[in-house]
Every structure is written in structure tokens, then in C-alpha cells.
Amino acid sequence: MTVPVTNENENGYPGEYKEIEYLDAHFQMKAVKKFAEVGSDKSLTLKSLPFPPGSKVEVIVLPAANEEDVFASMDKIVRKRGIKALTMKQVERIVHDARGVR
Q1: If you ran DSSP here, which 8-state letter would residue 61 be given?
Q2: Which one, 9, 34, 63, 101, has the greatest CB density within 10 A?
Q3: Tens-digit pLDDT profile for residues 10-26
Q4: Which ranges of the chain does DSSP label H, i.e. alpha helix?
Q5: Cα gap 40→65, rounded to integer Å
Q6: What is the pTM of this model?
């Protein structure tokens, strides 16, 4: 199941949201991607999260590769290399061929 990334959740909180469906169809996790800067005291504060107060959440912190998001980077690469646009059907065919699915 593919769910598009949205710029706000159902409660109007800003951010990037994508529901991730695992093999167990009864468990879905909502992932929130935020960029933040570590303070001089090496702490981090996250605001406007889409979870009710008191909710238990798991936080994984990774260093950002660079300031530019992946979509802007890929747009530059596509233009530079002259890669033609594909329809979703064409992408699906390529993925299925690579996986040996017909």
C-alpha cells in the first residue's frame, strides 16, 4: 500500500507525514520527519508534534546529510543528466521486471 507524504496531518499539524504499513496488517505507524538544530547545550526541542499530550513516542535522531532536501537534489540530477520523466505505469513495469513479477 502506498500512502503519499503530506504536509500536515489530520489535525492540521505541519510536517511530513507518511503512514507506513508493515507486514502485520494490524499495526500501522505514523512517521514524522522534522529537521531541527541542536542547541549549544546539546539538547533538542520538538514542537507541534501530531500526538496528544502524554503519548509515548520513539525518537530516532540522525545527522542531516545536508541542508537541501532529497527532492530538490533529485530534480537537479534529473535535469543535469537529461533523464526523461516516466509515468507510474512505466515505473511499475520496471520494478516488476527487476523483481521478476509479471
Answers
A1: -
A2: 9
A3: 556 566 666 555 555 55
A4: 70-81, 88-99
A5: 20
A6: 0.37
Cα gap 37→42, rounded to integer Å? 9
Instruction: Give the position of cell 513495469.
Output: 93
Residue predicted with more confidence, 70 or 14: 70
- Which cell numbers hold the place of 74? 533529485
- pLDDT of 8 > 90? The answer is no
52-65 pLDDT, tens digit per residue, is 899 888 888 888 77
What is the number of other CB atoms lying within 10 angstroms of the CB of residue 17? 19
Residues 6+ apart with CB under 8 A from 7: 14, 15, 16, 17
Q: How far apart are CA 53 and CA 26, in angstroms?
A: 24
Domain ranges, residue 91: 66-102
CA–CA separation, 30 and 25 (whole Å): 14
55 and 90 housed in the same domain? no
Residue 69 cell numbers, joined: 532536501
Domain count, the chain: 2
Regarding whether 99 and 73 lie in a shared domain, the answer is yes
